[in-house]
Amino acid sequence: MNNKEKGKLYVISAPSGAGKSSLISYITQSFDNVELSISATTRSPRAGEENGKHYFFMTNDEFNSLKKDKQAFIENAEVHDHQYGTPRSYIEYRVNHGINIILDIDVQGFKQIQRAGIENTSIFIVPPSMAELKSRLVKRGLDSKEVIDKRLDNAINELEHAKDFDYKILNDDFDSACKALSAIIIDGDVTSQDDNNEKILRDLLS
Ligand code: 5GP
Predict the structure, then answer these.
(1) Ligand 1 pocket, 37 CB below 6 A?
(2) Mind giving me the DSSP string for 123-178?
């Protein structure tokens, strides 16, 4: 297989509750040849989550021992008090076999990938407002109040890094956001909404 047939890497980040997982599911279910990477994490599985499907769930000791091998993860970070990492062998195997891979990772992981000079297209999902973000986190009922508060605090920090991404997609309407994401991943298009999304980002941070 030559280089031309290699898969591409897409980094997608967003604050918790911005709707990133639903958007990614739409893409992986609608198009062949685009897969979501499976990360390792020390977080406990939520109801319905399966080891090897949603994450590779492991203890802190297991994660730390993997981390000692500097090649094990292409990036790793502590997010909301738990460790997360992208397994290098998993990504390399798929990209070398022509599969396009989406990395659903936080901004710290994105920065590490940038620093390592790994070629990628990066997309930040922007929530319509902080109030909407909170309401989505409460409605999905997955996390305690303490966890939700921590995730909202972290959201501000994540939003401050949105400017470093190649594309920003506003998720105020699911269908439009799906279209914008497909245009980038499937058609390699530049979204025309970017200027408007910059303004929404500034408002969110003000
Ligand atoms: P959750 O616990 O809700 O599944 O994910 C929490 C956060 O961790 C999300 O922002 C998600 O993007 C991020 N995350 C998941 N896997 C990884 C990973 O492998 N590396 C990094 N840096 N962040 C990750």
Answers:
(1) no
(2) EEEEPS-HHHHHHHHHHHT-S-HHHHHHHHHHHHHHHHTGGGSSEEEE-SSHHHHH
